[in-house]
Amino acid sequence: MSNDPTTPVPASVPAAAPAAAPAPDSPFRAEPGDRDLAPQFVLPLVVRIERAAPPPRTDALETAARAVLVMLGDERSTGDGAWARAMRDWQDARIRKVVRRARGAEWRRAEALPGITLTGKSAEVRVFPPVPLDGWPKDLARLQVSGTDLDDPEPPAAADPAAPVLWMNPDLDMSAGKAMAQAGHGAQLAWWALSDGERSAWREAGFPLSVRTADPARWGGLTTGGLPVVRDAGFTEIAPGSCTVVADHPALRR
Questions:
Q1: pLDDT of residue 148
Q2: What are the backbone angles phi and psi of residue 53, rounded to the nearest 5°?
């Protein structure tokens, strides 16, 4: 996440499609292209962090990833739905996500805005329809982008190999907010790569998934195995082109 608490800075932008090289107008192309000339939108996510009971980091990452999937699969996001135009505008440009934090009255004001709240084991994340980069609702624009420090009290259990896993790069040190945005990117890439039937099955199952840090010895193989890979655009925290997440959905394994 950005260290500037006053400007809505994109947490990151995924910059590479799986396997084949991206088309010239791909939202995951690292170099400037036609999508950069389109009006730019951002998908806002707000994580609830109360001082007395912050959520575990992994729970927050997994909840953010599911929130993105729920937004993508919601009937209001497609066809003639209330959010469909905003979703199309967002996906026609760069695929940007910003994670902000809220507590107390800030969280209650955020919940009053149109969106969807996802609850994990203890984490709460609310996702909102895309907004213009310079057109944030007042109650979201005032929320802090920086200052999110989340940890796992205990190491997370091993991931279920039969379920989707979003593997995080073991060599990158990212804030919780940055990592939440990256997990959301990975979930979105997996969603796009699936067939309609596979998407429906995932949605009907409640979007089960895990977010785990990859074993360093496996990371190279994961990034070259044909699975969807997120490459960061380098707006915040890490170098442009860094591989951040591999989306390992069982239906996409070769």
A1: 67
A2: -150, 70
